[in-house]
Design a protein that fits this description.
One of its GO terms (biological process) is response to reactive oxygen species. GO terms for molecular function: flavin adenine dinucleotide binding; NAD binding; NADH-dependent peroxiredoxin activity; oxidoreductase activity, acting on a sulfur group of donors, NAD(P) as acceptor. InterPro entries: AhpF_NTD_C, AhpF_NTD_N, Alkyl_hydroperoxide_Rdtase_suF, FAD/NAD-bd_sf, FAD/NAD-binding_dom, Ferredoxin-NADP_redctase_2, Pyr_nucl-diS_OxRdtase_2_AS, Thioredoxin-like_fold. By secondary structure, this protein is α/β, with parallel strands linked by helices. It folds into 3 domains: 192 residues, Glutaredoxin, CATH 3.40.30; 183 residues, FAD/NAD(P)-binding domain; 106 residues, FAD/NAD(P)-binding domain. Helix 3 packs parallel to helix 5 and helix 9 runs parallel beside helix 10.
Length: 512
């Protein structure tokens, strides 16, 4: 299961185990069970503090990890490789007494949660969003004896997936009931369980002293702005729903200069680490709601708290554009998806559609073609906007069909899941129906600027208009990244505009 290089790396990590742990394997006669048994055996052989035993569990194959002599509370139903290998390594370390790097106050909040919480998370091994959720819930299970967590590979437990009608990952269940879907941070999960946490946090934020630069948004533009501002020695804060923004949902990045290849979560981890090297106050799990200008610039949050600053940099980024057709919202997460890498494996052997013929749409179609039965690409225009190399590849695959001048008009479902879609041929005005189980929407981005429409000058598309210094129409307020009218929405361009906005804000401060 593990090659020599991976074994060596794992062996190095396992040296951090301070207390004995036990691996409990539940298996049957399937090839996957044999793979999991081999993996567990290889891990146990790497460290004398790890023992292995066979058990009969509710699911097979499955692997439970826990301190020796205790009933394990962390379970992996499936083989935790791919994106989930890190989740397995962390579970081994934490069960063995190695401390987590999570915020100490948050860990204490987890220990103090009252009640019984039994979590199940359905994942796919190709999902880059899933490990964050799995690792968060695993840590909670390690810290609190009243919490258990089981990761379930949907590809191996298809019957459960169909019974629960899971069509998007990660999907989290708590005590048998649906709890949440999509990326969730540790703090988000804990605050959802601890109902009084939001009010306490809002009260604490209201008491904070004004910043000199407050950055709204934690993506590449926000991170760059924070670093450049902090290096000037001025009080800097970042407030965001999550650190990383849209990049957290990006898989392969091949055009980041000097780095031939990386992945979104890896780049975000590096950005966050770089920001933390400076005295920057990072506030997450908070959404901006209003912007006001008085003696200071005020940012009101959805939580009711208000942060004040002498200058503000808006770097709220953008989100996936929706089709805005009947049925889209009703079947979101039930066949309508926006991340082919995350949710594609759930449609193995089924017919799917991709909406959009740009780079993201054609890349999605190519990726899905290796998993699903067939892919129908619907492009609004009479030409594909994707790079020619991608188009040539897509056209060479026998299970990809491309339909141009197609306007999607409706998502069709049976009340529980997607069963097809309707589109209009823009050339003939004829209406057609395509039978599909999944619809992957890849039609561009929408700036996260709705909350600013009454106070800043925006383009018709809702992008913030800025000058060469990143300044907006409101004195003391700057903007950067995908939320602005700057052309070409690229990570490296967002970073550059973030540094420009920070330098512009600093120049504003020394002049006012």
């Amino acid at each position: 299961m593990l090659d020599a290089n991976l074994k060596q790396q794992l062996n190095t990590y396992l040296q951090n185990i301070v207390a004995p742990i036990e691996l409990s394997v539940s298996s049957n006669d399937s090839p996957k069970s044999r793979e999991l048994s081999d993996l567990a055996q290889e891990i146990a052989e790497l460290n004398e503090k790890i023992t292995l035993r066979q058990v009969e569990g509710a699911r097979a194959p499955s692997l439970a990890v826990g301190p020796a002599g205790q009933t394990p509370r962390v379970n992996f139903a499936g083989i935790p490789m791919g994106h989930e290998f890190t989740s397995l390594v962390l579970a081994l370390l934490q069960a063995g007494g190695h401390p987590s790097k999570a915020d100490a106050a948050l860990q204490e909040q987890i220990r103090n949660l009252k009640g019984e919480f039994h979590f199940e998370t359905y994942i796919s091994l190709s999902c880059q969003n899933c490990p964050d959720v799995v690792q968060a819930l695993n840590l909670m299970a390690v810290l609190n004896p009243n919490i258990t967590h089981t990761m379930i590979d949907g590809a191996l437990f298809q019957k459960e997936v169909e019974e629960r009608q899971i069509m998007a990952v990660p999907s989290v269940y708590l005590n048998g009931e649906h709890f949440g879907q999509g990326r969730m941070t540790l703090a988000e999960i804990v605050n959802k369980l601890d109902t009084g946490a939001a009010e306490k946090k809002a009260a604490e934020l209201n008491e904070r002293e004004p910043y000199e630069v407050l950055i709204v948004g934690g993506g590449p533009a926000g991170a760059s702005a924070a670093i450049y501002a902090a290096r000037k020695g001025i009080r800097t804060g970042v407030v965001a729903e999550r650190f990383g923004g849209q990049v957290m949902d990006t898989v392969g990045i091949e055009n980041f200069i000097s780095v031939p290849y990386t992945e979104g979560p890896k780049l975000v981890a590096s950005l966050e680490q770089h920001v933390k090297e400076y005295e920057v106050e990072v506030i997450t799990e908070q959404s901006a709601a209003k912007l006001r200008k008085g003696k200071l610039v005020e940012v009101e949050l959805d939580s009711g708290a208000t942060l004040k600053s002498r200058s503000v940099i808006l770097a709220t980024g953008a989100r996936w554009r929706e089709m805005n057709v009947p049925g889209e919202q009703e079947y979101r997460g039930k066949g309508v998806a926006y991340c082919p890498h995350c949710d594609g494996p759930l449609f193995k052997g089924k017919s799917v559609a991709v909406i959009g013929g740009g780079n993201s749409g054609i890349e999605a179609a190519i990726d899905l073609a290796g998993i699903v039965k067939d892919v129908t690409v619907l492009e609004f225009s009479d030409t594909l906007r994707a790079d020619s190399v991608l188009v040539k590849k897509a056209e060479s695959l026998p299970n990809i069909k491309i339909i141009k001048q197609a306007m999607t008009t409706e998502v069709l479902g049976d009340g529980n899941k997607v069963i097809g879609l309707k589109y209009k041929d823009r050339k003939t005005d004829e209406s057609h129906m395509v039978d599909v189980a999944g619809i992957f929407v890849q039609i561009g981005l929408v700036p996260n600027s709705e909350w600013l429409k009454d106070c800043l000058e925006l383009t018709e598309r809702g992008e913030i208009i800025i000058d060469s210094h990143g300044a907006t129409s409101m004195p003391g307020v700057f903007a950067a990244g995908d939320v602005t009218a700057t052309p070409y929405k690229q990570i490296i361009i967002a970073m550059g505009s973030g540094s420009t906005a920070a330098l512009g804000a600093f120049d504003y401060l020394i002049r006012h």
